[in-house]
Specification:
Layout: E1 3-4, E2 10-13, E3 32-39, E4 42-47, E5 54-58, E6 62-65, E7 67-70, E8 77-80, H1 84-105, H2 109-131, H3 136-156, E9 164-165, E10 168-169, H4 177-192, E11 199-210, E12 217-226, E13 231-232, E14 237-241, E15 257-264, E16 272-282, E17 297-307, H5 308-313, E18 319-323, E19 325-327, H6 336-342, E20 348-350, E21 356-365, H7 368-373, E22 382-384, E23 400-410, E24 422-429, E25 452-453, E26 464-471, H8 475-478, E27 482-490, E28 498-507, E29 519-524, E30 526-527, H9 538-541, E31 564-573, H10 580-586, H11 595-601, H12 607-612, H13 614-627, H14 629-646, H15 656-666, H16 672-687, H17 694-701, H18 703-721, H19 726-745, H20 753-764, H21 769-773, H22 778-790, H23 800-815, H24 817-820, H25 822-842, H26 846-858, H27 867-893, H28 900-923, H29 926-935, H30 939-957, H31 967-991, H32 999-1013, H33 1025-1035, H34 1038-1053, H35 1065-1072, H36 1077-1098, H37 1102-1117, H38 1123-1130, H39 1132-1135, H40 1145-1176, H41 1183-1200, H42 1203-1220, H43 1223-1236, E32 1243-1244, E33 1253-1254, H44 1255-1272, H45 1276-1292, H46 1296-1315, E34 1323-1329, ...
Parallel strand pairs: 15-22, 36-37
Antiparallel strand pairs: 1-3, 2-3, 2-6, 3-4, 4-5, 7-8, 9-10, 11-15, 11-21, 12-13, 12-14, 12-16, 16-17, 18-21, 19-20, 23-26, 23-31, 24-25, 24-27, 27-28, 28-30, 29-31, 32-33, 34-35, 34-37, 35-40, 37-38, 38-39, 39-40
Helix pairs in contact: 1-2, 1-3, 2-3, 4-28, 10-11, 13-14, 16-18, 16-19, 17-20, 19-22, 20-23, 22-25, 23-26, 25-27, 26-28, 27-28, 27-30, 28-31, 30-31, 30-32, 31-34, 32-34, 32-35, 34-36, 35-36, 35-37, 37-40, 38-40, 40-41, 41-42, 42-43, 43-44, 44-45, 45-46, 51-52, 51-55, 52-55, 52-56, 55-56
Length: 2021
């Protein structure tokens, strides 16, 4: 049976419990649990970390702890009774644990490790406290350490400041708020401002002496020297060094250190020096021989000084090297330190070049005991005191030190020719003649010695020593003792004898008991012989010792007095005195006649002498008073006042307890009170009469101790007499206080002496209260004090200092013991409050007022319901509440002072007043509030009060009111505020509703309530769980309470609600954005009510809507609101239902619809704003931020029509683009604002960053900014349009200056188009699927414009970085519904191809690519991507029969580029292209590419012929996929034609394109022949021969006419030269216009590679067609990292289709022999037979005129012959290729035109080559040169992807361009060098022509058999740059190329004016070719024209009609009028 527990309430889990039984509670080790019930070894309860879950757990898993229970029963609360420090430690460490891990995650390593150490330290200290074996003092110390570390950690982690009292946390409910404030302030101050230390200490550590000439032991003496007063100020630190200059006893390092203690702040100045004297112990002369003398002498060595200011300036922890100096003459040794300080260089020099003293010095601050406790230094370190007493003399300090300085001596020669070497030896001899042992101290580092030997100065009869010694002689041995000084001459002879020649002595105490007076004494030197024994001191003590005491009758003992010895003495003793007057006073009974004189001299005696004998002196004074009070009463009183006031001095302040002890324990003057009262009253009465008040003020200052003596004396008298004369004593006191009241009541004008006396009395009067309480009742004393204080005049014109002192007196009264009693408090409170009121009214002495008020409230406990307390609160409320509110308003409205100290004081005052107000309000009960409200006689007074208190509450809620970490204080304040507001809201309802409605006061109320709820300190969601739990337990959720109050008050408003619409919408909306469900449920119906009332008033709620939307935007930008809120807001809609009676039926319907519409709008806005807020929280600008802003911007424009918000977001978007360097997008964005403006003079107000200006000026500024951004984004064409617009405006205003500038700018943009490089961006389609994406992306697809050089894989990585939780989809298929609805993020990314709108520009021939490149990638609405798949059965021999293409076209909502880098796809169209249509498109594109290259070659746009060479080679000799033969096999067979009768036109079209290609190739060869350089002739000849093979395979006969190079034919008869000097090369007939909007249709050479298919599509073909033999599945395109076969500037689309047959099978028309040759040529050179490269001439099947027959080894370029070849790097046969072709190093080729890797793959045509038409050509000319592999010009590595059988494998990913500056890779322009506009200018290279005649047969157009190669026009659908494949872009050669030399005579260059006859491929007549010498360059005439295309009608069904129709450009929306922005 479960029984409720009585004592077992609280425990800690000691082992983890997993909770496997039913109803069990899982527990972790360390959890704390509250136990509710128990049963058979089981407990039931809950863990504190999750109190909502209750369960059972085994009792043996719990360690029980003591706890007390509050609120027993269902809601009981358990509080552990352990030490509160332990409780705090435990909870704090738990909180830190979580945050500590977060530090690691955030990579804050430093704080992570520091906190870790602190946590371990706290755990160790906690263990010590828990063990409980600590002493009381040690426990306090440990707790102090714990709390210090807890506070440090809390501060570092940004946690709350914890209020503590004696190391324990305080409950803010148990103490008054003023006390809480003081505790917080104290901890805050302790944290902020360290208290400056008053005492300082110097730590000295001797390291070593570095000097070259050591070798003797040394003594080092440290001391502090005051150069200003020219005296030492400290004792000496003495240290011995060994012969190496290191301290002796190295095993005791503490012996090398000393602490110079008790330095005052005044002694840290630059004229205080550290002085170091060094004495050597050894022979007399430093250089004497060792055997000269064995006696050791102390001899001067050197001195060093250092100013203490140097330590203050630098880092004192480093070792210092002090320079050591020696005086030039030894006689100056005594003042060497002064000479060094004064820098008298002539008197000293360095002891050695490298001599130095290494010391460590450090200044320490604070209490010496604290420094020792902190264990910075071990206890063995010696302490070096200051000379004499310290600044503060402590009672009980025992000292008896006599300091003797041996100054100098004057000695005679003693009959010698040279001066003596004098050594002085000192002894202390006691009264018995015995030498006292170990009482001579050389310094603090060494123990005292028995005798002292001075150092010796060489040959000096007037030596000066200045050696200071301390003699710590006990007092008992002092009397009768004397010092003896013996003088010896030290011989420097071999014996080294020391001969005594005299002595001196001095007694330490005189006969009258006075000690040896301080000062210098000249002692007599008594001569004596060497053998005289001085042990019997009585023999010489009778002699005179000093010249001052020389007696005439002792002449026989004094042989001579010419010799003298000087010493200086200084006594520092707490027991002995040198003062005779003091001795006379203490011995007053011996000489009664001297009493008056002694008493008068007491004031002249030094204070330190008096405090030494304080008790004796006081006994003396009261003894005299008892014996003769009449005669000496006044004098004794004055002496007593002098001593009392002397103890006020800070030096003797610590002797006050000595006097207190004397009064309590030793004072015996039982009758003294009468005389003291009498004299005191006499002085008080005379105050108003006398002019000079100095003495009276002294008396008044001493009144505290005078009253102590009076009271103690009366107590002694009462004890002795049994309480006699009590009434008499009371009367005396009453009379005394009446005299006081009289003198206090005297009014004074200005600062008179009387007012000064009043001030002095008031400042010391409160100290008397406690004394009076010893004799009188509390009430009596209270009444006395009240009357005294009440007598003070309250006039305002009195002396201000007196007013301040009055207030201080009131303050001390409140702080006194008297005020703590409730009885006395009730008596004193009115007078205290009266004075406070006066000062607060005047706003004077606010600091003191605040302090007094705080003290008043500190005494009133919180829940004290005593009657007296309630009465006190009544009095305070009535007296001070109004003035307190006014004061707070006054001080908070003042500007804060600038100085930091005054600002702190200002904040203190504010905080104290606030805490006083809160204390008062917390103490007020219902009765107090009722009385307060009843006190107001009129409504106006009440209104004023309520407005005032609401304003003060708003001030209290401000974040800056309390420091950031004062959460405890804020919560207490909020609790008081909400309680008060609940009381006052009743008054508001009763007095200010209906007829007496007051808008201002209600508005103030609502405003207060809103900012109360929105406070940061009340947002519990941000707190840690433990903190949240504590707050909820103590205060509940105050926001909900206030929210309910708002709702209640709103409902009470009734019809007055309309006054607050729409003003309160914003504030209430702010409240609803707080994520607190209860609060939201309370607040949201108010919006319904507002809409309802607004509808009633105006028929709509436009105002509500406008305000709602504006406020939502600003609040969401601040980061408020969440997803739940949006859903909650929707809940208003069903709330409309419950109010059908509010409106008529029609109104209700209208109201309902418009209401629902508003909510829907607001919800959609919320979605966008939430996304915007979340995105803006991130650091860097990314696509999400921009996309989100675009979404919001469009919403404001289209749905809300909020123009101002729209413009604001335009500029936010503009700033984002600029930050991301999206300059083009930034320009388009700003254009939105520009379109809203007109060219008018309408004035516009200041808005955002725009000044006040006209609309014209703003539009002009915007235009210029937009042009600048288009320029930076290289979108110059758009900039030109704007330049023209603004130029038109300038022109209309005749502003020619600006017009000129604009035209110049326009011209510069044209120049940039022609001269600067522009990169074409890639475009990517991105799908965002899943519910986890932001609203504006969710389940939508976009097309994004990539960054420069950004490829697919880079873009994909960027997107995954932006959406780190997203999953990349690996296919291009449309996702299904499960993906759409998934709670995840899916990204689908692949590249797409733009479909340009401007076809006309792109179709036109002769337009430079610089211009075309813009139109290819700008203003793009449509994009496409293709997916190849097989339909039906796949033919393994020819897969192109079944290879279809699915083409998807994406249409965007806006064209790219635009205001964003990405736009949403509005529409998608999908069509399927048949294999035949695909083949037609591929051939079309290849033909167009050939035309472009030929045209560029003709017009000299190409500086390098290699691209044309490669392209021709690729088409003519296609050896990869078998050429167009596969198409013939697929589409020209009877079976296909019969099965597809509808494709008849398409088949005809394909045939025509093949024939057209043959024409173009023939013409291309003609052009190629004219421009091919000499070293590439063999290749050209090979191409010509191969072309005839190709024609034969196609079944085409010889052309009837000889193809001759002739200029292009223009219909108008003259060539048209474009502005960039590149002549148009194609005739209109020659250009085939293809309306298909595909980039493959355009002659953009930088999109396609040199071969028709392989360069573009090798990667895709290898992925798709290369697998066709083994798989028939449909191909799903993967978002591959790279889709280009070559390393191009842009990655190609992954949607690639290739219809080209595989080349591995070879052409079917070639003979087996030829196939054999192909296979042989695949072998390595070592494996393949010789005939594979050089065929055997004897072989019968080989034709006699074969190209290889006459091609011997000599004709192979050496570079190919000699170059090493790697077998695995070749795919096809290798034919000899000129070196220039391989490397681009020919005289006419740019070195960058061909890929740098020489390992190029080759194709090979076998032996069976058809004969050339011209039999006259030589063998080398007929040789067919191989072409480089069309799919791997980049690197030989791709060859490894081809297997031995010839099957095509996947090529590797091409390398990426890494540098933007590489011209060979990235220059997309094919125009000549920008330096020259004309082909005649600049460094365009000339081409060397070939004088080869050749004949061509006529074309038979209907030939049914066409043979071709892989490169014959079967193109992929990818886009590919020419930069690395065809060598298309070239670097301009900087030097002219020399013309090749030849034997043929040179022909003059033809002139441009002659136009050769037109040329036509249909001409049948033979023409004689005109040979041209090799040595001549081609003249700049019109080059040969391209043959016109056959005029054939293309069928319409090749493509979807939507692709063929012209895309109508979308009009922009009409600009709306801008508001006054």
């Amino acid at each position: 049976m479960w029984i409720p527990t009585e004592h077992e309430k609280y425990g800690v889990v000691i082992a983890s419990f997993r909770g496997t039984v039913p109803h069990s509670l899982s527990l972790e080790i360390g959890d704390t649990v509250q136990i509710l019930e128990k049963c058979d070894g089981w407990y039931r309860g809950f863990a504190f970390k999750n109190p909502n879950i209750k369960g059972i757990f085994p009792s043996n898993y719990i360690h029980l702890k003591n706890a007390c229970v509050k609120n027993k029963g269902q809601f009981e609360m358990v509080i552990p009774t352990e030490d509160s420090v332990i409780t705090e430690m435990t909870s704090t460490l738990r909180d830190w644990g979580t945050m500590w891990k977060q530090l690691y995650v955030r990579n804050e390593g430093d704080l992570f490790h520091r906190l870790w150490h602190i946590m371990n330290e706290i755990l160790d200290l906690r263990r010590q406290v828990l063990v409980g074996h600590l002493t009381h003092d040690r426990m306090k110390d440990v707790k102090r350490h714990i709390t210090a570390r807890l506070d440090w950690g809390n501060e570092q982690l940004g946690l709350d400041l914890v209020p503590r009292k004696e190391y324990a946390m305080v409950d803010p409910e148990e103490i008054s708020i003023t006390e809480l404030y003081r505790l917080m302030e104290h901890r805050h101050r302790k944290k902020d401002t360290p208290v400056p230390a008053s005492s300082h200490h110097l730590f000295v550590q001797m390291k070593s002496l570095m000097c070259s000439n050591l070798g003797e032991e040394l003594e080092v003496i440290f001391s502090l020297f005051d150069s200003k007063e020219n005296r030492p100020i400290s004792e000496r630190f003495f240290l011995k060094l060994n012969r190496n200059g290191l301290p002796k006893c190295p095993e005791k390092p503490e012996r090398h250190c000393s602490l110079f203690v008790d330095l005052g702040s005044s002694e840290l100045r630059k004229d205080i020096y550290i002085m170091v004297h060094i004495i050597r112990i050894g022979r007399m002369g430093a250089g004497e021989k060792k055997n000269a003398c064995n006696v050791q002498y102390r001899r001067p060595f050197g001195c060093a000084v250092l100013s203490i200011a140097d330590l203050l300036a630098g880092d004192t922890k480093d070792d210092l090297i002090l320079k050591v100096y020696m005086c030039n003459t030894e006689s100056d040794w005594y003042q060497i330190h002064e000479n060094i300080i004064k820098k008298l260089n002539a008197r000293y020099n360095l002891t050695g070049s490298n001599a130095g003293l290494a010391v460590s010095l450090q200044l320490l601050h604070g209490d010496i005991e604290q420094i020792r406790r902190d264990s910075m230094f071990t206890h063995g370190v010696s302490i070096t005191r200051k000379l004499g007493f310290s600044n503060i003399i402590m009672p009980g300090e025992m000292r008896n030190d006599l300091y003797i300085t041996m100054e100098r001596g004057e000695f005679e020669k003693g009959g010698k020719s040279v001066a003596r070497n004098v050594e002085v030896t000192m002894y202390i001899v006691d009264s018995g003649g015995q030498i006292l042992k170990d009482f001579i101290s050389f310094g603090s580092g060494e123990p005292p010695a028995t005798e002292f030997h001075s150092f010796v100065l060489y040959h000096n009869n007037s030596p000066r020593w200045a050696e200071l010694l301390k003699l710590p002689i006990p007092v008992d041995k002092f009397r009768g003792a004397h010092l003896r000084f013996e003088f010896r001459h030290c011989s420097t002879k071999e014996k080294g004898e020391k001969k005594l020649f005299g002595f001196s002595f001095v007694p330490l105490m005189q006969e009258n008991g006075r000690t040896l007076p301080d000062g210098t004494h000249e002692l007599i030197v008594h001569k004596c012989e060497e053998n005289v024994s001085l042990q019997d001191s009585s023999r010489y003590l009778k002699f005179p010792f000093s010249k001052g005491h020389l007696l005439g009758n002792n002449h026989q003992a004094v042989k001579t007095t010419k010799e003298s010895f000087w010493i200086t003495s200084f006594l520092c003793s707490t027991k002995l005195t040198q003062n005779g007057d003091m001795l006379d006073l203490l011995k007053w009974r011996a000489h009664p006649e001297k009493i008056a004189g002694c008493l008068s001299k007491l004031k002249e005696i030094d204070g330190s002498e008096i405090v030494k004998f304080l008790q004796d002196t006081l006994d003396t004074l009261f003894g005299i008073l008892d014996e003769n009070s009449q005669k000496y009463g006044s004098q004794v009183f004055d002496c007593l006042v002098h001593i009392i006031n002397m103890l006020q001095d800070s030096k003797f302040h610590h002797f006050k307890p000595v006097m207190d002890t004397y009064i309590e324990s030793h004072f015996a003057g039982a009758l003294a009170y009468r005389d003291l009262i009498k004299v005191l009253k006499w002085h008080v009465d005379r105050i108003t009469e006398v002019e000079r008040q100095a003495h009276n003020q002294e008396v008044l200052k001493a009144q505290e101790y005078i009253f102590k003596y009076i009271v103690q004396s009366r107590k002694l008298f009462s004890l002795a007499t049994g309480g006699q004369n009590e009434e008499e004593f009371c009367c005396c006191i009453q009379e005394l206080l009446m005299s006081v009241r009289f003198f206090l009541s005297q009014e004074t004008k200005g600062a008179s002496t009387l007012s000064q006396a009043q001030s002095v009395f008031l400042s010391s009067f409160p100290a008397v209260y406690s004394e009076l309480l010893k004799l009188f009742d509390v009430r009596e004393v209270a009444n006395l004090v009240r009357d005294t204080l009440g007598s003070l005049p309250t006039i305002t014109n009195a002396d201000e200092s007196l007013q301040a002192v009055k207030l201080q007196c009131i303050g001390k009264t409140v702080e006194s013991q008297l005020y703590t009693s409730p009885e006395s408090r009730y008596i004193l409170l009115p007078v205290v409050l009266h004075h406070l009121y006066v000062h607060l009214q005047e706003q004077k002495d606010l600091v003191m007022c605040a302090r007094i008020l705080s003290n008043i409230f500190c005494l009133i406990k919180k829940n004290s319901s005593e009657k007296s307390v309630l009465e006190e609160i009544d009095v305070i409320v009535n007296s001070l509440l109004d003035v307190l509110l006014r004061t707070i308003l006054e001080i908070t409205s003042r500007p804060q002072p600038a100085g930091s100290a005054t600002r702190l004081q200002f904040q203190d005052v504010t905080g104290e007043f606030v805490s006083c107000l809160l204390s008062l309000l917390r103490q007020m009960t219902d009765r107090h509030y009722q009385q307060l409200l009843d006190r107001f006689k009129t409504r106006d007074e009440l209104r004023e009060f309520l407005l005032q208190i609401f304003t003060v509450f708003r001030i209290l809620i401000r974040p800056e009111m309390f420091p950031k970490d004062w959460t405890v204080m804020r919560l207490v304040a909020n609790n008081v505020i909400i309680t008060t507001v609940l009381y006052l809201s009743d008054a508001l309802r009763k007095n200010f509703l209906n007829e007496s409605f007051d808008y201002k006061i209600w508005d103030s109320y609502f405003y207060l309530a809103v900012i109360f709820i929105n406070q940061l300190c009340l947002q519990l969601e941000m707190f840690t769980p433990s903190k949240k739990k504590k707050v909820l337990e103590k205060y509940g959720d105050m926001r909900v309470t206030m929210g309910c109050e708002i709702f209640s008050m709103w409902q009470n408003l009734g019809e007055h609600k309309v006054h607050f619409i729409p003003a309160l919408i914003g504030p209430f909306l702010e409240v609803t954005l707080i994520p607190q469900p209860d609060l939201r449920n309370v607040m949201i119906p108010i919006f319904h009510d507002m809409m309802d009332w607004e509808q009633r008033r105006s028929g709509n709620f436009k105002q509500v809507e406008a305000k709602l939307i504006d406020k939502l935007d600003s609040l969401m930008s601040e980061g408020k609101g969440d997803e739940t809120y949006r859903e909650l807001f929707n809940s208003i809609i069903p709330l409309f239902g419950p109010y059908p009676s509010l409106l008529k039926k029609i109104e209700r319907e209208t109201w309902r619809e418009s209401g629902i519409s508003l909510i829907a709008t607001v919800t959609r806005l919320m979605e966008r704003l939430l996304d915007y807020r979340d995105c803006m929280k991130m650091g860097e600008v990314d696509g999400k931020k921009i996309g989100c802003t675009v979404s919001l911007l469009n919403f404001y424009k289209t749905e809300l029509n909020k123009e101002e918000m729209y413009i604001r977001y335009i500029h936010k978007l503009y700033d984002l683009h600029l930050k991301a360097q999206n300059f083009t997008e930034a320009a388009y964005t700003l254009l939105l604002y520009d379109e809203l403006l007109e060219w008018s003079d309408r004035p516009l107000r200041e808005f955002l960053n725009y000044p006040m200006q006209t609309e014209w000026q703003r539009k002009e500024y915007l235009h210029l900014t937009i042009i600048q951004n288009f320029d930076r984004g290289k979108c110059w064409e758009n900039g030109i349009i704007l330049c023209r617009k603004i130029a038109d405006q300038y022109e209309s205003y005749y502003d020619y200056r600006n017009l000129s500038k604009m035209r110049v700018m326009e011209a510069s943009l044209y120049d940039k188009i022609m001269d600067q490089q522009r990169l074409e961006p890639e475009f990517f389609r991105v799908g965002f699927y899943g519910k986890k994406f932001p609203f504006f992306l969710r389940n939508k697809e976009f097309v994004c414009r990539g960054h420069d050089y950004e490829r697919l894989e880079a873009f994909q990585q960027r997107m995954l970085n932006e959406f780190p939780h997203a999953i990349a989809m690996q296919h291009a298929n449309q996702p299904d519904e499960t993906i759409f609805q998934a709670e995840a993020q899916y990204l689908q990314i692949y590249a797409v191809t733009p479909i340009p709108e401007s076809q006309e520009v792109l179709q036109r021939e002769g337009i430079p690519d610089n211009i075309k490149s813009f139109y290819k990638v700008n203003h793009i609405w449509r994009f496409r991507y293709d997916r190849p798949f097989h339909k039906g059965t796949k033919d393994k021999d020819n897969e192109f029969k079944s290879l279809w293409v699915e083409r998807t076209t994406l249409i965007l909502v806006q064209s790219l580029p635009g205001i964003s880098r990405w736009f949403e796809v509005e529409k998608r169209e999908v069509v399927e292209m048949s294999p035949l249509e695909n083949a037609i498109e591929v051939l079309e594109n290849k033909n167009q590419q050939l035309r472009t290259l030929i045209s560029q070659c003709q017009t000299r746009q190409m500086q390098n012929i290699n691209p044309l060479t490669m392209c021709l080679n690729g088409v003519i000799d296609a050896a990869v996929n078998g050429g167009v033969t596969r198409y013939q096999e697929a589409f020209f067979v009877k079976e296909y034609i019969l099965n597809h009768p509808e494709d008849g036109e398409k088949i005809t079209c394909l045939r025509e394109l093949m024939l057209e290609q043959a024409q173009i190739l023939e013409f291309g060869l003609a052009v190629h022949e004219k421009f091919v350089p000499q070293d590439m002739r063999p290749l050209h000849k090979k191409l010509v021969d191969q072309f005839f093979v190709m024609k034969s395979s196609l079944g085409i006969q010889e052309f009837a006419a000889c193809v001759q190079a002739s200029p292009i034919h223009f219909p108008n008869g003259s060539p048209r030269v474009s502005r960039n000097s590149m002549p148009v090369s194609m005739s209109p007939e020659g250009a085939r216009v293809i309306p298909r909007r595909s980039p493959l249709s355009y002659p953009a050479a930088n999109r396609y590679s040199s071969s028709s298919l392989s360069s573009q599509a090798s990667a895709e073909v290898s992925n798709i067609t290369g697998q066709s033999e083994s798989s028939d599945e449909v191909f799903n395109m993967q978002p591959s990292p790279s889709t280009s076969s070559l390393s191009s500037t842009h990655s190609a689309s992954p949607n690639v289709t290739s219809s080209a047959p595989s080349s591995a099978r070879g052409s079917p028309l070639l003979s087996d022999k030829l196939k054999h040759s192909r296979e042989n040529s695949c072998l390595s050179p070592r494996e393949r037979p010789c005939s594979a490269i050089y065929p055997n001439p004897s072989e019968p099947s080989q034709p006699a005129n074969s190209g290889f027959a006459k091609w011997n080894e000599a004709s192979i370029p050496r570079c190919i012959r000699d170059s090493p070849r790697e077998p695995e790097e070749h795919v096809g046969p290798i034919s000899a290729l000129p070196e220039a072709y391989l490397t681009g190093k020919s005289s006419n080729l740019s070195t960058s035109s061909v890929a740098p890797d020489r390992r190029i793959l080759f194709n090979h045509i076998g032996d069976g080559v058809l004969p050339r038409s011209d039999p006259n050509l030589s063998g080398p000319e007929k040789a067919v040169n191989s072409t480089p592999s069309s799919w791997s010009l980049d690197s030989g590595k791709e060859a490894r992807n081809m297997s031995d059988s010839g099957k095509l494998m996947t090529p590797p990913v091409p390398p990426r361009p890494t540098q933007t500056a590489s011209p060979a890779r990235h220059v997309t322009s094919v125009s000549p060098s920008p330096a020259g506009r004309s082909p005649m200018k600049g460094s365009v290279q000339s081409f060397t022509p070939s004088p080869v005649d050749y004949h061509s047969s006529g074309l038979i157009s209907n030939s049914p058999v066409l043979s071709g190669s892989y490169s014959s026009g079967i193109s992929s659908l990818s886009r590919c740059s020419m930069s690395e494949t065809s060598g298309f872009e070239t670097q301009v050669n900087e030097h002219p190329v020399p013309i090749s030399n030849c034997n043929i005579s040179e022909e003059p260059v033809r002139k441009e004016s002659k136009t050769p006859p037109p040329y036509s491929v249909y001409e049948r007549t033979l023409r004689r070719p005109v040979p041209l010498p090799h040595s001549l360059s081609i003249p700049i005439t019109d080059p040969p024209a391209l043959p016109p295309k056959p005029l054939l009608v293309r069928p319409n069904n090749l493509e979807n009609s939507s692709k063929r129709t012209e895309q109508v450009p979308r009009p922009r929306p009409l600009p709306r009028k801008v508001s006054q922005l």
